[in-house]
Amino acid sequence: MPATFTLRPTLETNGSTLLIIGKRDQLLAPATQKLLPKEVTPPIWSDMVKRNDPGDSGTVAETYTGSNPKRVVAGVVPAKHSRHNAASHPVAIAHIVQRTGLKG
Predict the structure, then answer these.
(1) Domain 17-100 in CATH: superfamily?
(2) More confident residue, 23 or 104
(3) How many helices (H) and strands (E) does the chain have?
(4) Which residues are within 8 A (CB) of 30 and not within 5 positions of it... i.e. 6 or more apart?
């Protein structure tokens, strides 16, 4: 089944939670940091992304902004995969989303 991904230079933040998932180096890239609300400064984001080892099932770190979105979550997937895991880390992504408590 084909899938279509759309990349936007800005994010629509009408929800209460902004979840950004990626490998550590992708999350620390300047392009990703430009998507963050102004309350989440580069040092805060860097600490969130580097805080825990993603292991095999990924890791989550979050902060609250006091504005919209109220909660910003960094979901870090493992940088490496084995021959039994897909490079896209679907299991890690599922675990990350489950840990955030998001539905849908």
Answers:
(1) Zn-dependent exopeptidases (3.40.50.10590)
(2) 23
(3) 4, 3
(4) none
